Amino acid sequence: MAVIRHEKPEDIAAVRHVNEQAFGRPAEANLVDALRSRGQAMLSLVAVEDGRVVGHILFSPVTIESGERTFSAVGLAPMAVLPELQHRGVGSQLVKAGLDECRKAGCERVVVLGHPEYYPRFGFVPASSFGIRCEYDVPDEVFMAFELREGAMLNCAGIAKYQPEFK
């Protein structure tokens, strides 16, 4: 069982390594670095086993634009676990801890662009069921939303817009 804690400055290189290994490319690691450097990493948690960072999850601000109204949300992305430790529950620990921390911080809505077989186990449903679309052209089943407060998605249909670093 991994220990989940907030990222520390000395974790930055290890977080980069985890993301590069998990995704097999530097794009997600670059995204994390860019969001962090611009102060847009709202929540960054690491999973530690035997003193080594083995997983990472990041949440950043997202807006849901609905006509003349805008609603705040957070985007879960990326979530990464070292390949040799995947399918052992580390990712689930990160997601659950992250959602709990977001709720404690007063966040009401979370969106994720991810695997439709994975995220529903945490309560995510297609965002389209709330009338929310992603600003990117993605299949309906991979863009999901989760209410951290019951009823938080009511009347906030619109387009979810991520931080510019996601482009």
Descriptive overview:
The chain has helices at residues 12-23, 27-37, 90-104, and strands at 3-6, 43-49, 52-66, 69-81, 109-113, 125-126, 132-134, 143-147, 158-161. The chain is of the alpha+beta class and 167 residues long. The chain has a single domain (3-166), classed as Gcn5-related N-acetyltransferase (GNAT) (Aminopeptidase, 3-Layer(aba) Sandwich), CATH 3.40.630.30. α1 (12-23) packs antiparallel against α2. It is globular.
Kindly state the mean pLDDT as a whole number? 97
Strand content: 25-35%
CATH-derived architecture: 3-Layer(aba) Sandwich
Count of distinct structural domains: 1
Our count of helices gives 3
Keywords:
167 residues, 9 strands, nine-stranded mixed sheet, globular
